[in-house]
Amino acid sequence: MKKSERLNQELIFLSDKKRFNLQDLMDNFQISKRTALRDIASLEELGLALYAEAGRAGGYSLIQEDLLTKIYFNSDEVAAIFFALKAMEQLKETPFNESFQMISQKLLKNLAASRQQQVLASQAAVSFFNTPAVHHNPYLRLLMESILHDSLVRANFKGQQVLLQPCQLFFRDGNWLFAAYDLLGQAFWNYRCDQLQDCTEQAAVPNKLSLAELKQKQLEFEHDNSGQKFKILLNHRGQEHFLKNLYPNMQLEHEGGTTYLTGSYTPRTFEYLIDYLLTFGLNAKIITPEELRRSFKERLAAILDQYS
C-alpha cells in the first residue's frame, strides 16, 4: 500500500476515536514502530489535531472528539470521481436533496484551475445514454430513511393499503423501485416508487421482521422457482438483450450450442413477463409452456389489429 493510501486509511481509522497508541496503527496497518511514528508526524501535517500523553500507558489523544476526516486523492482518483458523477447525472431524482450535477460543481471549485480544465475536458469527451426516470417519485427520501432507520412504511399502493418493511432501493429501466415485505399480505415484492400514495413512516409493530429475516425473505423471493416454469430460445442478440436487463427468477441455460432463457412466473407476474418478452422482438421464441405461447400470440394479434 502506498503511503498516501495508508495515510487516508489511518485518517478514517482514527475518525471515531478519542485516543490511540502506536500499537493500534502497527497492528491495523502491519507497519513498524518507526513507520507508525513517521505516519503520526505526517497526519499532524495534514491537520490531524492530537497530543502525546506522557506516562507508562502513554499514547495519543485527539483534540477533536467529532473529527471530520480529510481524504486526499491522486489525479486518477479525482478523474474517477467526476466520471462516476457524470454517469449518474441522468438520475434527476434521488433520495438526496442535492443533484449529482450540483455536487460535481461544488467539488470542481475546490480544484486548481489547471485541474478543473482537465476534468471538464475529460467529461466533454464522454457521454452516457441511460434511461432517465420517467415518473415523479416524491417518497424516495422517506423510503431511504425508513431503510436506514429499520422502520415501516404505510401507504396506498394501486388502491390497496399496505404496511411495508423496505430493505432496498434500486433504479431499473427508468423507474425507481424498492424491495419490501408486506406485513399485511405477508409477501415480499418489488414496488414501483411512483405508484405509492399517502406514504408515511410508521413505528415498529410486534410482527416486524428482524434484518436477517428480511434479507432471507428477499433471497427467497429472488430465487423462487415455485411458479410456472418457462423456457425461451434466444439467439445471440437475445442473449445480449437479457444480459443488459437482468431480472430475478430468470437465467441463461446452455444446451450444446443452443441458449435458453429459463425461469418461472406467477399469476401476479404473468402480464409483466409478456410485456418483457415483447422487447426481444425476433430474438426470442417461447418454447414452453403453451399458456405463455398462447397469451403472447394474443398480445401480438392485438398489436396487429391496431394496424388493420
Describe this structure in words.
Residues 3-58 form the HTH deoR-type domain. One of its GO terms (molecular function) is DNA-binding transcription factor activity. Keywords: Transcription, Transcription regulation. This is Transcriptional regulator. It comes from Lactobacillus delbrueckii subsp. bulgaricus. With 308 residues, this protein is an alpha+beta fold. It has four domains: 3-62, Winged helix-like DNA-binding domain superfamily/Winged helix DNA-binding domain (Arc Repressor Mutant, subunit A); 76-124, no CATH class; 140-221, SH3 type barrels; 228-305, Alpha-Beta Plaits (2-Layer Sandwich). Helices cover 40% and strands 24% of the residues. It contains eleven helices and twelve strands. The protein has helices at residues 3-14, 22-29, 33-45, 75-87, 100-108, 113-124, 140-149, 211-222, 236-244, 270-278, 290-305; strands at residues 19-20, 50-52, 60-62, 152-157, 160-172, 175-182, 187-192, 196-202, 228-234, 250-255, 258-265, 284-288. It has a five-stranded antiparallel β-sheet with strand order 7-6-5-4-8. Strand 5 and strand 6 form a beta hairpin. Helix 10 packs across helix 11. The longest helix has 16 residues, at 290-305. It is elongated and about 85 Å long.
Q: Could you outline the blueprint of secondary structure elements for this entry?
A:
Blueprint: H1 3-14, E1 19-20, H2 22-29, H3 33-45, E2 50-52, E3 60-62, H4 75-87, H5 100-108, H6 113-124, H7 140-149, E4 152-157, E5 160-172, E6 175-182, E7 187-192, E8 196-202, H8 211-222, E9 228-234, H9 236-244, E10 250-255, E11 258-265, H10 270-278, E12 284-288, H11 290-305
Antiparallel strand pairs: 1-3, 2-3, 4-5, 4-8, 5-6, 6-7, 9-11, 9-12, 10-11
Helix pairs in contact: 2-3, 10-11
